[in-house]
Amino acid sequence: MTLQRLEEFYPNYQEEIFAGDDIKGFDVYAGDSDEKVGTVYDALVDESGRFRYLVIDTGIWIFGKKVLLPIGSARFDYGARRVYATGLRSKDQAERLPAYNELEPLDYDREEQVRGVYRNQGTAATATPASYDRSNYSYDLDRPLYDTNEQQHQNLKLYEERLIANKTRAKTGEVAVGKRVETETARASVPIEKERVVIERVTPVEAGRVVSVGEADFQSGEVARMEVYEETADIHKEAYVREEVNIRKEVVRSTVEGEETLRREELDINTDGTPVVDNKKI
After folding, report:
1. Which secondary structure element, helix H or strand E, spans residue 5, and what is its range?
2. d(CA 93, CA 269)
3. What is the DSSP pairing of strand 82-85 with strand 27-30?
4. What share of the chain is helix, strand, coil (3-state, %, to 5)?
5. Domain 4-146 is classified in which CATH homologous superfamily?
6. How far from 167 is each of 25, 96, 249, CA to CA, in Å?
7. Is the pTM of this model over 0.85?
């Protein structure tokens, strides 16, 4: 069982627990007497936030020794800013308590020393050392030492745990899309045509026939013209759009379920005799 100082567990304990007040500095008196034994130096709470001890600075009573007072052995008077240590009745008892040092861890053995002193003062604690050890001890075994009640601890709040479901957004990675150029050798063939002029010289059927002077038409210069064409291959490359790439994000939704064991503090009211108790929630 790990104990923490009040301000470590509740940084804003004045507002959260004491409605703007502060029990640190309250005067501490032995039992129900007017014998001042010191002041409240601090308080210790367990891992659930429940009060377990008040740290009492005994001042000049025992030369500045700090001792632990189980919360069930304290009665608060907030109007007078006093704490009556109902379980601390004498200076001799305080001297037998181990000194508290906030720089040293408060382990099971040290707590047992504290509990042993208060049990011997007739606090009606039900636990006996033979009934437990460090592996199975629970504060419920010493309810008179640690229980709080409305009469003695009016401003101590009762707590319960709630299951809070939140979600956080964290970057898990990124996707980068780029382009690269790949090359390949392509071949293409184009059929082409070339024109050529064929001049055929043949011997006419009338070869050797004698023609008259007027029939013979002798002339010089160009007598015929024919254009000649040929095709050449034009093989080149052109760029064109092959496909388009669209990049977007899609949100995939799912539900994550979890469960926890929740704790809640309930108020125990112990009465002696037949008092009329009006226990109502406002």
Report:
1. strand 4-5
2. 28
3. parallel
4. 15, 15, 70
5. Photosynthetic Reaction Center, subunit H, domain 2 (3.90.50.10)
6. 42, 52, 20
7. no
Over residues 111-137, the pLDDT tens digits come to: 999 998 888 665 444 566 667 888 888
Domain locations in the chain? 4-146
DSSP state of 274: S
**Rounded to an integer, what distance in angstroms lies between the CA atom of residue 187 and that of residue 235?**
9
Q: 114 and 98 in contact (C-beta within 8 Å)?
A: yes
**Among 85, 96, 94, CA closest to 30:** 85
DSSP calls for 39-51 = EEEEEEE-TTS-E
Q: CB of 134 within 8 A of CB of 252? A: no
The string of pLDDT tens digits covering residues 225-245 is 888 889 898 888 888 888 888
